Amino acid sequence: MAAATHKERTLIAAIGDEDTVTGLLLAGIGDIDIHQRPNFLVVDAKTTQEQIEETFTAFTKRKDIAIILINQHVAEVIRGILDEYNAAFPTVLEIPSKDHPYDPSKDSVLKRVQLLFGD
């Protein structure tokens, strides 16, 4: 039964700046489900922490999303929620943006892997 659930997870969701999300949409990840909910959120200066948290939480509850890509600088805004999230699906990956390079020391998933392997 669990395997069937994973087969339904076919989408990649994105939470990030305009350039990142636009690039991912051009690559073909964009989708709007039957409830008219997109699988992406463009974060700009007007986006509130609450909007980011609500979107992240909604993405984690959707059964059609396998991976959530989030810009690392956006992830910092909701770090508490990300650090508490421990489900296998959807998997959360922090990615760099054009203006903010990737910092492995801030990545909560990488920290968990390092703890697991004792690094």
UniProtKB/TrEMBL annotation:
<comment type="similarity">
    <text>Belongs to the V-ATPase F subunit family.</text>
</comment>
<dbReference type="GO" id="GO:0000329">
    <property type="term" value="C:fungal-type vacuole membrane"/>
</dbReference>
<dbReference type="InterPro" id="IPR005772">
    <property type="entry name" value="ATPase_V1-cplx_fsu_euk"/>
</dbReference>
<comment type="subunit">
    <text>V-ATPase is a heteromultimeric enzyme made up of two complexes: the ATP-hydrolytic V1 complex and the proton translocation V0 complex.</text>
</comment>
<dbReference type="InterPro" id="IPR036906">
    <property type="entry name" value="ATPase_V1_fsu_sf"/>
</dbReference>
<keyword id="KW-0926">Vacuole</keyword>
<keyword id="KW-0813">Transport</keyword>
<dbReference type="Pfam" id="PF01990">
    <property type="entry name" value="ATP-synt_F"/>
</dbReference>
<keyword id="KW-0472">Membrane</keyword>
<dbReference type="GO" id="GO:0033180">
    <property type="term" value="C:proton-transporting V-type ATPase, V1 domain"/>
</dbReference>
<protein>
    <recommendedName>
        <fullName>V-type proton ATPase subunit F</fullName>
    </recommendedName>
</protein>
<comment type="subunit">
    <text>V-ATPase is a heteromultimeric enzyme composed of a peripheral catalytic V1 complex (components A to H) attached to an integral membrane V0 proton pore complex (components: a, c, c', c'', d, e, f and VOA1).</text>
</comment>
<dbReference type="InterPro" id="IPR008218">
    <property type="entry name" value="ATPase_V1-cplx_f_g_su"/>
</dbReference>
<comment type="function">
    <text>Subunit of the V1 complex of vacuolar(H+)-ATPase (V-ATPase), a multisubunit enzyme composed of a peripheral complex (V1) that hydrolyzes ATP and a membrane integral complex (V0) that translocates protons. V-ATPase is responsible for acidifying and maintaining the pH of intracellular compartments.</text>
</comment>
<keyword id="KW-0375">Hydrogen ion transport</keyword>
<keyword id="KW-0406">Ion transport</keyword>
<dbReference type="GO" id="GO:0046961">
    <property type="term" value="F:proton-transporting ATPase activity, rotational mechanism"/>
</dbReference>
